[in-house]
Design brief:
Structural class: alpha/beta
Shape: globular
Strand content: 25-35%
CATH architecture of the largest domain: 3-Layer(aba) Sandwich
Distance between the termini: 26 Å
CATH topology of the largest domain: Rossmann fold
CATH superfamily of the largest domain: Vaccinia Virus protein VP39
Largest sheet: 8 strands, mixed
Helix content: 25-40%
Number of helices: 8
Order of helices and strands: HHHEHEHEEHEHEEEEHEEE
Number of strands: 12
Mean pLDDT: 91
C-alpha cells in the first residue's frame, strides 16, 4: 500500500484491536464461510492479504485452516505475532506487489483493505497477485466499501471513531461520487494525527480488474449491519449496504 496507508497503520497498530473490538469476526466468518462453501470453497490453507493484527485468524484457526498473513505494516504484524506466535505464518509485503507464498484454497482481503488501493491499475495488480497464490479450484474473497459507507464515514465531517468519544475521524472534504478518492484525518487522545486515503471502486472497475487478473466472478454479497447484527444480501445495493463482498475463482 502507499506510504500514507503504511504510516496510518503503523500509528494505529498498538491500539488497533481496542479500537475495532466491536467488529465481530466470529459472527462474520460463521456466515461468510458457508456462503463461500456454496461457491465451491474447500478447507485447507488460507492467505489473508492485509491481515493487520490478525483479527480474521481466530475464526479460521478454530475451523482448522492453516493460515498465512501478509501486511505492509510491520507494526501491525508485530501485534499479530504477539497474539498468535507460531500458530500462523506472517510476512511483510505490499499487496500490489504480492509474492507467491504457495497454493491456497482461500485468499482473502477483507474489512476495506482494497479501498486503500487508490491509483488506476492498483486493483488489477492486487487481484493478479492473489490469483498467483490460488490453488486449483481455490476461491478469492474480498470486499470494497459502498457509496453508503463513504458518505457515512468519509464525507460526514467530524465523527467519533467506532463510538469512542476520545477519538475522531474528520473528513478532509469531497463528495461521495462513484470512483472518488477520499481523505480523512484521525486524531484523539493518545494517538498521533494521521491521514487515511481511500477510493470508491465502481462495480465496472471491479469486474474489469477481476477479468484482467484471469479470474471470474462467482458471486457478489451485500454486507450490512442492522442493530449490531451482520446481514448478508444476495442483491448488493450501494445505497443500503456497507460493503460488497466479491467471490472469484480462476477463469
Amino acid at each position: 500500500m502507499s506510504g500514507t496507508t503504511r504510516h496510518a497503520y503503523e500509528v494505529l497498530a498498538p491500539r488497533y484491536d481496542e479500537l475495532t473490538a466491536a467488529n465481530d469476526y466470529e459472527s462474520w466468518f460463521s456466515m461468510l464461510l458457508p456462503e463461500l462453501g456454496r461457491r465451491g470453497l474447500r478447507r485447507g490453507r488460507a492467505l489473508d492479504v492485509g491481515c493487520g493484527t490478525g483479527r480474521a485468524f481466530e475464526p479460521l484457526l478454530a475451523r482448522e485452516w492453516a493460515v498465512c498473513g501478509v501486511d505492509a505494516s510491520p507494526a501491525m504484524l508485530e501485534q499479530a505475532r504477539r497474539k498468535f506466535g507460531d500458530r500462523v505464518t506472517l510476512a511483510t509485503a505490499d499487496a500490489r506487489e504480492l509474492p507467491v507464498y504457495g497454493e491456497f484454497e482461500l485468499v482473502i482481503s477483507l474489512n476495506d483493505v482494497l479501498g486503500y488501493c487508490t491509483e488506476d491499475g492498483d486493483l488489477k495488480r492486487v487481484l493478479a497477485g492473489m490469483r498467483a497464490n490460488l490453488a486449483d479450484g481455490g476461491r478469492i474473497c474480498f470486499d470494497l466499501g459502498t457509496l453508503w459507507l463513504f458518505r457515512a464515514y468519509l464525507t460526514g465531517g467530524d465523527s467519533e471513531w467506532m463510538g469512542d468519544p476520545r477519538l475522531h475521524w474528520r473528513s478532509l472534504g469531497g463528495t461521495a461520487e462513484p470512483g472518488t478518492i477520499f481523505e480523512s484525518e484521525v486524531f484523539g487522545e493518545g494517538l498521533a494525527t494521521h491521514v487515511h486515503r481511500e477510493r470508491h471502486w465502481t462495480r465496472e472497475d471491479v469486474m474489469e480488474a477481476i477479468d484482467a487478473a484471469g479470474l471470474e466472478c462467482l458471486g457478489e454479497i451485500g454486507h450490512n449491519e442492522v442493530e449490531g447484527k451482520i446481514v448478508f444480501s444476495q442483491t448488493p445495493d450501494e445505497e443500503r449496504d456497507h460493503r460488497v463482498i466479491y467471490v472469484a475463482g480462476a477463469a
